Amino acid sequence: YKIYVDDEKFSNFFITILSFGFKYGIPVDSDLVFDVRFLPNPYYEPELKNKTGNDEAVKGYVMACDASVQFLDKLEDMLSFLVPYYISEGKNQLVVSIGCTGGKHRSVTLVNELAERMKHSEYGFKTEHRDIEKDD
Fold first, then answer.
1. Residue of 44, 53, 30 lying closest to 106 (CA atoms)
2. pTM, 2 dp
3. Separation between Cα atoms, residue 60 and residue 114, nearest integer Å
């Protein structure tokens, strides 16, 4: 069944896509955890260091790496495979956590990009950026 509230689409399954920094610990409520520290780090670019993955310049830097696009393609594919199985097991929510070193740049960008891809999904979802406001 589906419930519609204020023109938002919800089903009986809800996904939270969460960015975090490994240096602050893995979120304890995570169901799936992905490490994106294999991607180039905007932190080491002086003009990007004090920005976040919500800024276009950081997003451009992260998404210019082919591995970022491939990672999102594979993650999106994995979620479309897994979610029906979670539902058939009676699960009604899923927390997908994506982490980088500090939780400000790479993970934020990828959470936002995954959310953009999922906006037409049949499942309800939200994004959270747990560590985006933390100091170094």
1. 53
2. 0.90
3. 15
